[in-house]
Amino acid sequence: MTPYQFKPKSRWREFLGEKFIAVNAFAALIAILLIFIFIFKEATPIFTNGEVQKEASLNKMTFKQQFQPDKPAKWSWQPNSDLPKYSLWPLFLGTIKAAIIAMLFAAPLAIGAAIYSAEFASRRMREIIKPVIELLAGIPSVVLGFFALIVLATFLQDVFGLTYRLNILNAGIALGLAIIPIIFTVAEDAMNSVPTSLRDAARALGANPWQVSFTMVLPAALPGIAAGVVLGFGRAIGETMIVLMASGNAAIVSASFIDSARTLSATIAAELAEVVFGSAHYNVLFFIGTVLFLFTFVINLGGELVLQRLKIRFQGKLT
Amino acid sequence: MLRLFSLISVLLFLPQGAMAGQITVKGSDTMVRLCQRLAEEYMKSHKQTVIQVSGGGSSSGIAALINGATRVCASSRLLTDAETRTAATKGVKVHQVVVALDGIAIYLHKSNPIADLTLGQLRDIYTDRITNWKELGGPDRPIILYGRENNSGTYTYFQKQILGGEDYAERCEPLPGTAAVVHAVAHDVNGIGYGGIAWATTIRYAGIKVNDSAQTVLPNAANVSDRSYPISRELHFFLNGEPTGETKEFIDWVLSPAGEKVVVESGYVPVRAK
């Protein structure tokens, strides 16, 4: 009888194999880091170059500016003007408004569908619902955008009598269609992974299916559902094609959800192709990229922290 | 496809200008599509010639012509005084050829009762001073503005020519192309938009008056080519001296009926009145 199952002489292969896998694992990390460094590098003239700062300093991009002596100060995005105006506030507001509408539209539908599919639907029904909703994720965003541009916009305008045909409501709903499968899939998986022992315990105490679902499974799966919502929100912030096609892209500062709006991502998509390389406008677009990057990073991080807390609360463990 | 491939291989393996039959056209982004189509059609019938088209804007095209980096410069504007001086000091005799005319039409919804607009009204509409159709004698409804994205040559031209350099109203919805503007106005009874003049099937053109007392002029090929339509510009080729050899052959072809056909297909107006 030999003490070892594996011969020590093959150790160097294992060593190399392990390192190779480790490199693979770090490749993604390094790629993200390099992308961020590149984007940030192209945005740095905003902080260092005096010429660029004359047009687009942090102050000018953030606060109201008075451009004409006889008119009130305002936030304005007019990069190709005689006097270029680079306020990011209208774009930021547009992004947030689109994401909020998308969440209000998608989250109830997706969570409702997930509860039904995981808890109440018959096995057969579930095998229809789940793939069909997940099929939504396979629709290219340009197709969703086209649908919103041609069909949904006309429908919404006719039904609600909207002034602007292309508006943030239209874009938000189309955006919602894109994030329903994200929330649905994560939430449904979370509910399915609630241990059977918990369900059995509830049933043994005499709970009916409704009570099992809403007092037992749903609270236990809440971290997963929250994760789905956060992921969906991140996608809604970064999604470009749908808002570019469906939102009308006018950079307005307003609280209304039926005005047109321009988002950060759509601005990059619409303007980067023709911008003069190395100009202030070019640097500002990369700065917007940096802002978007940090923004989604913070959202995901925040979501992760919430998840941790919920996990401790409902499952009593740290993972 | 094969031609594209051979063009690429020519560009890759031969130094610039080494091949006898190569004409470079550089300049205006507005004209890139027109120039590409002209080049494609020309190369179909003149297989020995290779025409390389690139954009970058009128300014970079003019600079390239003055530096001798391109044989033909495509430009949607005339030379500035500074550019003329630089050209003179470098010994470049700029020869101008008007290849096409570009008229910008004002689009309205088919049901819109407004027949014509003055240039002043147009400026006020697009700078948010006039916001309701009733101020122009129409129904009491808001005016919904459609425009082009700020990287478009038409955006810049309209801003300079009509708005006098002022900013567009912020609520003006920028769209990615003329077709998108036409589609938007066709679906919006309160809409107004601007773009090329060859799109009139689903929308209506507004007649344009220079001022209140002037005559209304409709945007059509005849009015653009006799220069009576006020929102139009010349699209030029600039060369260093009179064209010779292959370049002359190409320019003559562009101004021939075959070239004019391409001009019309690209949405522009040929120079010679029909």
Structural class of chain A: mainly alpha
Low-confidence stretches of chain B: 4-19
Regions with little confidence, pLDDT below 50 for 5+ residues of chain A: none
Mean pLDDT over all positions of chain A: 87
Helix content of chain B: 25-40%
Task: Tell me the major beta sheet of chain A.
Answer: 2 strands, antiparallel
- Cα-based radius of gyration of chain A, to the nearest Å: 25 Å
Relative strand content of chain B? 15-25%
- Helix and strand succession of chain B? HEHEHEHEEEHEHEHEEEHEHH
- Rg of chain B over CA atoms, rounded to whole Å, is 20 Å
Largest sheet of chain B: 5 strands, mixed
Through-space gap between termini of chain A = 41 Å
Strand order of the largest sheet of chain A: 1-2
What percent of residues of chain A are in strands?
Answer: under 5%
Secondary-structure element order of chain A, N to C: HHHHEEHHHHHHHHH
How many β strands of chain B by DSSP? 12
Distance between the termini of chain B: 35 Å
Give the strand line-up of the largest sheet of chain B. Answer: 2-1-3-12-4
Largest interface: A-B, 28 and 24 residues
**Averaged pLDDT of chain B, please?**
85
Number of extended strands of chain A: 2
Secondary structure layout plus pairing:
The complex is a heterodimer of chains A (319) and B (274).
Chain A: H1 11-43, H2 45-48, H3 50-55, H4 58-62, E1 77-78, E2 85-86, H5 89-120, H6 123-136, H7 141-160, H8 168-192, H9 196-204, H10 209-238, H11 241-246, H12 264-271, H13 280-315
Antiparallel strand pairs in A: 1-2
Chain B: H1 2-13, E1 22-27, H2 32-45, E2 50-54, H3 58-66, E3 72-75, H4 81-89, E4 94-103, E5 105-108, E6 116-118, H5 119-126, E7 144-148, H6 153-161, E8 173-175, H7 178-186, E9 191-195, E10 204-205, E11 207-209, H8 221-225, E12 232-240, H9 245-255, H10 257-265
Parallel strand pairs in B: 1-2, 1-3, 6-11, 7-8, 7-9
Antiparallel strand pairs in B: 3-12, 4-12, 5-9, 5-10
